[in-house]
Amino acid sequence: EAQVTQNPRYLITVTGKKLTVTCSQNMNHEYMSWYRQDPGLGLRQIYYSMNVEVTDKGDVPEGYKVSRKEKRNFPLILESPSPNQTSLYFCASSPLPGAQETQYFGPGTRLLVL
Amino acid sequence: AQTVTQSQPEMSVQEAETVTLSCTYDTSENNYYLFWYKQPPSRQMILVIRQEAYKQQNATENRFSVNFQKAAKSFSLKISDSQLGDTAMYFCALVDTDKLIFGTGTRLQVFP
């Protein structure tokens, strides 16, 4: 089944404890991205990747890191999480190297930072 | 900077009726792409409809259609024959070069 998977789905952590949220797609898509969703703010793009080893900042990259060593994987790293990073996170992918095509979203990861 | 504005935080409609959700945007590009995404209570993000700005014809997908007014930078979504399963958050989105800009969303409740 064609899909985008994220792990974990739920995570509670404490301030400063490094964490990684994994994202994987099995559709051979070029473009992958991360978003955070907060009440009243909609979805905001954190980072995106046009292809392997090519990543760029979205609108809210502070406090996050990403890597794209393989086409299928695009992990999101929070080196020192803070409470303001408590949010719902979505990974997405699309076929072409750009955002003009339909984004296929993962199921979301709810993160709580205490 | 490109922006997307959804001025209706919440809307409600009775089953089988028609409802229109508003979206306005700002961009300096001449060719761009617009989307409506639906987020039901399951939180899964689902594409509803996609519009390419250079196409004059309004996109349609079954009961969903858009009214794309390029000069006015308006991109509203019309849902006909509303169903209980249409209850969801709806997000309008604009492609800004390689990035996707979302509006703040409209929560739609469909009543029996």
Provide an overview of this structure.
The complex is a heterodimer of chains A (114) and B (112). Chain A is an all-beta fold. Chain A has strands at 4-7, 10-13, 19-25, 31-38, 42-51, 54-57, 65-66, 76-78, 87-94, 104-105, 109-113. In chain A, strands 2, 4, 5, 6, 9, 10 and 11 form a seven-stranded mixed β-sheet that branches. A four-stranded antiparallel β-sheet of chain A has the order 1-3-8-7, with no helix packed on it. In chain A, β5 and β6 form a beta hairpin. The mean pLDDT of chain A is 95. Chain B is globular. Chain B contains no helices and twelve strands. Chain B is 0% helix and 54% strand. Chain B starts with a strand and ends with a strand. Chain B has 112 residues and is mainly β. The chains are: A mainly beta (114), B mainly beta (112). The A-B interface holds A 33, 35, 40-45, 48, 50, 56, 58-59, 88, 90, 92, 98-100, 102-103, 105, 107-108 and B 6, 33, 35, 37, 43-47, 50, 91, 93, 95-105.
Keywords:
heterodimer; A: 114 residues; mainly beta; 4-stranded antiparallel sheet; globular; B: 6-stranded mixed sheet; 0% helix
Count of separate DSSP helical elements of chain B: 0
Structural class of chain A: mainly beta
Mean pLDDT figure of chain B: 94
Distance between the termini of chain A: 36 Å
Q: N-to-C terminal Cα separation of chain B, in Å?
A: 41 Å
Helix percent of chain A reads: under 10%
Beta strand % of chain B: over 45%
SSE string of chain A, helix = H, strand = E?
A: EEEEEEEEEEE
Q: Total number of β-strand segments of chain B? A: 12
Proportion of residues in β-strands of chain A: over 45%
Which regions of chain A are unreliable across 5 or more consecutive residues at pLDDT < 50? Answer: none
Q: Write down the secondary-structure element order of chain B.
A: EEEEEEEEEEEE
Whole-angstrom Rg of chain B: 13 Å
**Overall outline of chain A:** globular
- How would the global form of chain B be characterised? globular
Q: How confident overall, as mean pLDDT of chain A?
A: 95
Kindly report the greatest chain-chain contact and the residue count on each side.
Answer: A-B, 24 and 23 residues
Give the radius of gyration of chain A: 13 Å
Helix content of chain B: under 10%
Number of strands of chain A: 11
Regions with little confidence, pLDDT below 50 for 5+ residues of chain B: none
